[in-house]
Amino acid sequence: MRVHARVLSSNSPLRSGLPRLRTSRPSLVGARWTPPALVLLLLVVMGGSVFAQSAKTHLADPVQATRFNEISDRLICQCGCQMVLRVCNHVNCPSAVPMRQSIEKQILEGKDDDAIVAGFVEEHGNKVLSSPPVQGFNLAAWVMPGFALGVGLFAAWYVATRWASKRNLAVAGAKAGSIDPRLRARIEDELKG
Questions:
Q1: Could you tell me the pTM of the whole model?
Q2: CA distance 45 to 144
Q3: How wide is the angle at C-alpha 47 spanned by C-alphas 106 and 68, nearest 5°?
Q4: What tens digit of pLDDT does each residue of 143-184 get?
Q5: For residues 86 and 72, what is the distance between their CA atoms, to the nearest angstrom?
Q6: How is the chain split among helix, strand and coil, in percent rounded to 5?
Q7: What pLDDT is recorded for position 133?
Q8: Which has the higher per-residue pLDDT, 9 or 188?
Q9: What is the Cα–Cα distance from 190 to 159, expressed in whole angstroms?
């Protein structure tokens, strides 16, 4: 039976009489962290997020990289994965890589964000957009969720008020004494006798 030293403290009644055990792993609880060690730990932990912004683009300028991210968030990868272009994780994706390169090229040429997106819509159709445009039949995609919620809330209110009114009518009918006096007398006789 193996007992870990961390489980039993030195002044525990279960610990008395047992030989002192050494742990096989060093503990980080009492370790002193020096500033260089903290900086190294911070770089290891945060390093991925620092370089994550430029993982899909080769643009060095932060403003251009931000524009790239905003544009690629508005587009869907066309390989069939149905992921937003910026987060398509297929290695050497036959659709995402050329689309990203095209976005970078157009940003470097100085094109406007809307013009870049419009070029992709012209090439691929509205299916390339990550959210449908707010016009025409696509307007239903924006309106229907709110409309369905409103209809559902109205239906719940209507059912609740109907149930409440039926209950109120039943309670009011019982209080009004609508029972026949002969039947009431017969009930009272049966209860007494």
A1: 0.48
A2: 43
A3: 15
A4: 899 999 999 999 999 999 888 887 776 666 666 566 778 888
A5: 5
A6: 60, 0, 40
A7: 78
A8: 188
A9: 40
Beta carbons of 37 and 28 less than 8 angstroms apart: no
DSSP class of residue 27 equals -
User: pLDDT grade, residue 51 (50/70/90)?
Assistant: very low
**For residue 6, what are its two tokens?**
């961390």
Q: In sequence order, which residues have a C-beta less than 8 Å from that of residue 78 and are 6 or more positions away?
A: 95, 99, 124, 127, 128
Q: Which two tokens stand for residue 57?
A: 């683009």
Fold for 53-131, please state it.
Helicase, Ruva Protein; domain 3 (1.10.8)
Domain residue spans of the chain: 53-131, 139-192
At 99, the amino acid letter reads: M
| 50 or 27, greater pLDDT | 27
Q: Which residues pair with 75 in a beta bridge?
A: 129
CA-to-CA distance for 73 and 139, rounded, in angstroms? 20
Distances (CA, A) of 134 to 113, 139, 140: 18, 5, 9
Report the run of H or E that residue 66 belongs to, with start and end.
helix 62-73
